[in-house]
Amino acid sequence: MLITIDYQDKRPIYEQITEKIKNLIVVGVLTENDKIPSVRNMAIEMSINPNTIQRAYQELERDGYIYTVKGRGNFVSPVTEWKEDRLTDGLNRFGELAVELCQLGATKETLYKRVDEALVSERG
Amino acid sequence: MLITIDYQDKRPIYEQITEKIKNLIVVGVLTENDKIPSVRNMAIEMSINPNTIQRAYQELERDGYIYTVKGRGNFVSPVTEWKEDRLTDGLNRFGELAVELCQLGATKETLYKRVDEALVSERG
DNA sequence: TAAGTGTACTAGATGTTCTAGTACACTTAT
DNA sequence: ATAAGTGTACTAGAACATCTAGTACACTTA
């Protein structure tokens, strides 16, 4: 089972699916040109309607994370398709979050430490 | 007009209201014991149903940002009520975001720089 | 007493989400 | 050629959250 759905989560199913697959791609579990499960297979495996899977896949394609070949299936896109956007968005959120944390009294050292820890965990 | 609603935003109205008021409190525009507009006034001013405002205020009270006095109105809570939780949650998100940004190739210097900028903008 | 306040409740409209079913075009393997 | 597997498109309806509308009651203050 590649993905699990949290039915307590108030977000719609298709959104949970897109988010989790995006993460699998960003982390590197799924890499360029990997085939992801077909709409029907994923639907059966997760006991979810195929239309819901289809919608999730459409969003993934729209955002550049996968590409679709009719009759063959869905495949993971090259990193270049999404890396830039994700980095830009992430840095913006990072900056905004840093401002708020400073307003809440977080020290420079605290934030630096978190960054250092992130660098370590990323190497491992 | 204290708050404006973005009807293009897919999030529900009551959620937008709670988020914006939270920000006003965190930033310091609204401070301890300030009275916020009554359910009815806010509803008229924003051309929104009073029930929607009420729901937003209930969430704000549940999260500790305001307190309610029957017959008098709603007032901003002391910072101590929400500061700790918000700092903890924020630092967690900060750490997770840092990990992802590192995986995307962000350098230590880039993230440090964003933190420094945040410290500067917070002083101003 | 009157005005303003929070709170609770019912009822209904609206939009999104999800399911169900069907159909068609394409690719691959046999 | 045929069958199986694939993506895609469409209609229909159920289920749910959101929002509006209206009413009512208890409380506080002037």
Can you tell me about this structure?
Two copies of one chain form a homodimer. Chain A has helices at 13-27, 39-46, 50-62, 83-103, 108-123; strands at 35-36, 66-69, 73-76. Chain A has two domains: 13-78, Winged helix-like DNA-binding domain superfamily/Winged helix DNA-binding domain (Arc Repressor Mutant, subunit A); 83-123. The longest helix of chain A has 21 residues, at 83-103. The first copy, chain A, has a three-stranded antiparallel β-sheet. In chain A, a hairpin with a 3-residue loop joins β2 (66-69) and β3 (73-76). In chain A, α1 (13-27) packs across α3 and α2 (39-46) crosses α3. The model of chain A has no long low-confidence stretch (mean pLDDT 96). Chain A has 124 residues and is mainly α. Chain A has five helices and three strands, in the order αβααββαα. Chain A binds chain B through residues 26-28, 83, 86-87, 90-91, 93-95, 97-106, 108, 110-112, 114-119, 121-122, and chain B through 26-28, 83, 86-87, 90-91, 93-95, 97-106, 108, 110-112, 114-119, 121-122.
